[in-house]
TrEMBL record:
SMART domains: Gln-synt_C. It comes from the Bacteria. Belongs to the glutamine synthetase family. Residues 1-295 form the GS catalytic domain. This is Glutamine synthetase. SUPFAM superfamilies: Glutamine synthetase/guanido kinase. GO terms for molecular function: glutamine synthetase activity. Keywords: Ligase. The keyword Phosphoprotein does not apply.
């Protein structure tokens, strides 16, 4: 029962146990609610420095599995476990701080409270996004989720509180704008290696700052509803529709390849190409079923 207290009550024992287990590890659970799909739940945890955040994600995933087993439940983090249900994401919120802890993405003069550095960082991510997807949505099943009108993002664009945009400026907390303004990256899921995903996002964002890239005008509506001619004029490109396409972009992206190193890039491409080949002749239903409880 989506966003309903009834859904919370059904799963209360499991969620209470999970919250306690996370607290014992020093992981601060900030928000929980039941989501759209049957038995689907979402949690948000306190932000951490990037390496700690990557490790914390792994701890959380394993904790959820262990607590679920205690309650006789089975967990799926697969991007699209069932084709007729909403998928699972692993959205990433980010900002940048200086040595004194000041938010470098904050500018009170901007209508969205985002600084020039923040816009340039976003622009770098948008520029490299077709290749980034190979690292942030790295399975064949990932692209069963990344379709238009699914709140997951299918076009390269940004927008304030636009659920169909891959990058959105999340509404800051009123009276705490300086501390809370941040950008959300939506085309990420929990089949990814968080160290690779976050490292690639940083490399792309820093490239945007180095080259003073411009993210262009915000998209304030569903990009799939914008006429194709207007999307083309505004540079709103369709993102890769398959892992194979994303891997092709990664193989041509010099910035991400330099950040990863040649050996890692070639090994990663080889492993992922073998996964693409394995699923080549499988139906959409078979692909979802194969991933359902592997992740």
């Amino acid at each position: 029962l989506c966003f309903s207290s009834q859904g919370m009550l059904i799963s209360q024992d499991f969620i209470d146990d999970l919250a306690k287990s996370l607290e014992q590890q020093g992981i601060i659970l900030e928000q929980y609610y039941p989501e759209l799909a049957h038995g689907q739940h979402e949690i948000s945890v306190r932000h951490r420095p990037v390496m700690e955040a990557a490790s914390q994600q792994l701890y959380i995933r394993e904790t959820i599995r262990a607590v679920a087993k205690r309650h006789g439940l089975q967990v799926s983090f697969a991007p699209k476990p069932w084709l007729d249900q909403a998928g699972n994401g692993g959205h990433i919120h980010f900002s940048a701080r200086d040595d004194e802890g000041n938010n470098l993405f904050y500018d009170p003069r901007d209508p969205y409270r985002l600084s020039i550095m923040g816009y340039q960082f976003m622009a770098g991510i948008l520029f490299h996004l077709p290749a980034l997807l190979a690292l942030t949505t790295p399975t064949v099943n990932s692209y069963q989720r990344l379709v238009p009108n699914a709140w997951s993002s299918s076009y390269a664009c940004w927008g304030p509180d636009n659920r169909e945009a891959p990058l959105r400026i999340a509404s800051p907390i009123k009276t705490q704008e300086q501390q809370s303004v941040n950008v959300e990256f939506k085309p990420a899921d929990l089949t990814s290696n968080p160290y690779l995903a976050l490292g690639a996002l940083i490399a792309a964002g820093l490239d945007g700052i180095a080259h003073k890239l411009d993210p262009k005008e915000p998209v304030l509506s569903n990009p799939d509803d914008i006429p194709a001619s207007e999307r083309e004029a505004r540079g709103i490109i369709r993102l890769p529709g398959s892992l194979d396409q994303a891997l092709d972009h990664l193989a041509q992206d010099a910035v991400l390849q330099e950040a990863m190193g040649e050996m890692l890039v070639q090994s990663y491409l080889a492993v992922k190409r073998s996964e693409v080949a394995f699923y080549q002749n499988k139906s959409p239903e078979e692909i979802a079923a194969w991933h359902r409880f592997r992740y």
